[in-house]
Amino acid sequence: MSTPRYLTVSALTKYIKRKFDADPHLSNVYIKGELSNFKKHSSGHLYFTLKDGKSRIAAVMFSSAASSLKFQAENGMEVLIQADVSVFESSGQYQLYVKKMEPDGIGALYLAYEQLKEKLSEEGLFHAERKRGLPLYPVKVGVITSPTGAVIRDILTTIKRRYPVVSVRLYPCSVQGEKAVPSILEALEKAKHDEELDVVIIGRGGGSIEELWAFNDEQIARAIAAFPVPVISAVGHETDVTIADFVADMRAPTPTAAAELAVPHIEEVREKIMAASIRAHRAVNQKIQFDKQRLFKQTGSVVFKKPQKLIEQQVQQLDRLRENLSRESHLIKEKAGIRRDRLHERLIRLSPDRQIEHKRSLVSALHTRLENRTQKLVTVKAHQFQQSVSTLEALSPLKIMNRGYSLVYDEQGNLIKNSQQLKEGDAVKVSLQSSDLLCTIDEIKERE
């Protein structure tokens, strides 16, 4: 019996991978399912799981393929994919290598359009309050479109017919294909630095959503929103609506309509000028008639016929004012004199000499009161002292000793009040009135 040949895990995995790669049924497989565990790596690769109600399979979409996506993939989205089925050798797990992906039931371009529309709307780029009004009488109009085709011809023809005095500046660009976005951005940048522009028209003719797609680009939308002068969007036909239409200050259903919005009609301007001229002439005539009537009324008044009466009235008024001035001046002088006298009296009353004399009188009176009170206090205290001395002498032990009494102290100087404090042989001190006796206790006898 021969010994079995053992394979390594790597060898077995490589063999299985070759089988997968060689099977034509596992190449360019079309699968639909739901996205889950979606993750976009910093490298641009997309990692996710494709699942249905019963199974799931890992999948990867490398950045080279992911860069062509027209929508933002996210968890829970139903998608249609084209992929190769192979084995990832490191884990031994089979997975999908996705080449193309689009939403199930909705076009990828339409989904991308709706996602960008929602994003910019949340940022406020569509809000009406940020829209600017168009100039009434522009001097220079910029046009961003293809230099060939019906669009530029329609715009130029309409502007020349309606308002031939305006100047038109064309910023040519590509409006379709891969080069459209950078070409439109370049044209917007050039127009942005033209300080003479009053308004800009950007647009192209009608077409499919793919042909109009450049005007759904986020960069172009933000450039239009940030443009320094009002922008009119005229992309496609009336039924075609792009992101550029939402961010522009005004949307026109057609390029011809955009030209009509950008400039007024010369005949309407002439009519307004004529109407304004008529109103001005009428207003001037009315003013002249009013002033004539006013002049006639004033020249017929008494003032002009007898001006001396006006002077006499003013002279009389002047005399009255002089009398009032004289009377008021006299009253002011009287009040000032009274106020001056009061201030003089107050100044004398508050002069330093008067104040010093007054204070001296107060000090003298206070000194006399202090001496009187001090003398009374000394007398009272002397009397109290004499009473205290008498009381002290009456209670003094020396007075008692004068009558033959003495005090006995032990060796520690304690006063002996009874015989229990002593015993035979103790030394004591007997204090008389004028001397002390040092004695020894020979015997203690209790008194009957």
Could you characterize the architecture of this molecule?
With 448 residues, this protein is an alpha/beta fold. Among the domains are: 9-106, Beta Barrel (OB fold (Dihydrolipoamide Acetyltransferase, E2P)), CATH 2.40.50; 137-264, Rossmann fold (3-Layer(aba) Sandwich); 400-448, no CATH class. The chain is 47% helix and 19% strand. The chain has 13 helices and 13 strands. The chain has helices at residues 9-22, 63-66, 108-122, 150-162, 180-192, 218-225, 243-247, 255-262, 266-299, 302-305, 307-349, 352-395, 397-401; strands at 29-40, 46-51, 56-61, 78-88, 93-103, 140-145, 167-172, 199-204, 231-235, 250-251, 407-409, 427-431, 436-440. A 5-stranded mixed β-barrel has the order 1-2-3-5-4. Strands 7-6-8-9-10 form a 5-stranded parallel β-sheet. Helix 5 (180-192) packs parallel to helix 6. The model has no long low-confidence stretch (mean pLDDT 86).
- What's the CATH H-level superfamily name of the domain at 137-264? Hypothetical protein af1403, domain 2
Percent in helix? 40-55%
Question: Could you report the average pLDDT, rounded to the nearest whole number?
Answer: 86
Structural class: alpha/beta
> How many beta strands in the DSSP annotation?
13
| CATH 2nd-level architecture of the domain at 137-264 | 3-Layer(aba) Sandwich
Low-pLDDT regions = none
Spell the H/E element sequence: HEEEHEEHEHEHEHEHEHHHHHHEEE
Short description:
With 448 residues, the chain is α/β, with parallel strands linked by helices. The chain is built from 13 helices and 13 strands.
